[in-house]
Each structure stands twice: as C-alpha cells, then as structure tokens.
Write a structure and sequence with these properties.
This protein is mostly helical. The chain contains five helices and no strands.
C-alpha cells in the first residue's frame, strides 16, 4: 500500500470555530496568498482526518453495505445516488443551496468576511 507524504501546512479548519467554518474565514489566508502569487502545492493545507480518502472510503463502504442489505430485503436495486446523498448530503447540500442560483455568493462571502 502506497504511503502519502503530507507536506502541507497544518489545516486551520482543525481549529476553526462555527462562524469561521460558516463563512470560510479559515480559508482567507490561503485565498489572500492566491491573490498575491500563484499557489503551489506547498502552499496548500494538509487534509483534515475526516476528509482523508481512507476515512471517506470506509464511511461510503459502510453506507453502501447497508443499502445493499436493505435492497435485498425490499427486493429492489441498490441506489448509489441514495447512498451518496445519505453519506455526504448533510455536508454538501447546505453549501449548494446557499450558492445555487447565486454563482458569486460564495466568493462575495469570502471577500466580505476577511477574518485576518
């Protein structure tokens, strides 16, 4: 199994409070740097544990196995769409609803809530 070496900086999301998470203030230093220079891989933050592929893969596998058992019981086909929504919907849907129809909303929030 290949090992991934994380060379990025510690992710400020680990220490971010509710407001910082909501308005993405934790991301402001990186966005500010990106306005000054071209971002390099070494400028990126390390991936937080809950977003690492191993963690996400295990979570998705668990939801998929549950869906397969349920579909056998209900005599229907398992649904990958349903599994993806159950597994990640709570994380991604609120952000999608906030920006849907408002393509500049997220950018505006990031610029407006500069928390330096």
């Amino acid at each position: 199994r290949a090992q991934c070496v994380m060379t990025g900086q510690r992710n400020p999301l680990e220490r971010a409070g509710c407001a910082s998470r909501l308005f993405l203030c934790w991301l402001s230093p990186l966005l500010h740097l990106g306005t000054k220079q071209r971002l390099e891989e070494s400028d990126m933050y390390s991936v937080v544990q809950e977003d690492q592929s191993d963690t996400l893969g295990k979570e998705l596998q668990s939801f998929w196995e549950r869906e397969v058992r349920k579909s056998k019981k209900d005599l229907c086909e398992p649904s990958l769409t349903r599994v993806l929504f159950q597994c990640y919907g709570a994380v991604y849907c609120p952000g999608a609803m906030c920006t849907d129809g408002h393509p500049c909303a997220q950018t505006w929030c990031l610029l407006w809530t500069n928390c330096d």
